Amino acid sequence: MAKTTASTARAKAEARPNTATTKQIEAGMDQITDFAGKFTGMAEGGVKALTGSAVASTEVLREIGTRNMTFLTQAMEQSVELSQTLANVRDPREMFELQSAFAKSMFSACTTEMTAQTELCVAAWRNAAKPYMASFGK
Known about the structure:
The protein has helices spanning 5-15, 19-87, 92-136. It is mainly α.
């Protein structure tokens, strides 16, 4: 069966690219490229924020470790001093008073240290969040 000239003309017209469609496709590709660029920028900002956050967190963990070791060392020294004092006490009432005073002082010192470390951790969290806020706030 031979093709007619009308069907051949129609086939050629359909084969020609539509300029409006081509422009829409190009605009869509430009949008995708723009989105990919923005996504890459966000990913890069996220990596930088993660690095900054890790540095801040490491410093805080080091500070907390140092504070804990100092506190435990002081507590052990005070405990040894109390033990030496109690070894020389002959009155049970004085012994209970010394132990009670020691327990109160240690509880107070522990509360003070935990409060200071909590404040340190809250400040560290804020500092660690700053890079993320700056990165994603754009």
